[in-house]
Amino acid sequence: MSEVNQENFHQYHRLMGCTVEELISWLPAATNYKVFKINQQFPNQIDFPEDGIKIVANPQKSRQIALLVIPVLAVVFSFDAKWDKLACDQFMKRFDMYTQRGGG
Fold this sequence. Notes:
Blueprint: E1 2-6, E2 9-16, H1 20-30, E3 37-38, E4 45-48, E5 53-65, E6 68-79, H2 85-99
Antiparallel strand pairs: 1-2, 2-6, 3-4, 4-5, 5-6
Helix pairs in contact: 1-2
């Protein structure tokens, strides 16, 4: 989990154990029901035009433990300049808590 702060936006990186389709199915609740659309030119990109958020999800090589195969998704969240660090952190905290799977 890393965060990059550039001049005009904040960017967060996650490695997630899911498919793009699963990620999309979790987005409504994980983002507090923000309106999003799948970018038709780049199907792994999800845009939140009203909120200035872009999510790019790139499938990676799956991980395998015995017969268990876990998909891996490299996900990058980009927030435009209207988002300050505190607001980005709050968004990511909700997203992370909602998408956390398994546990112990």
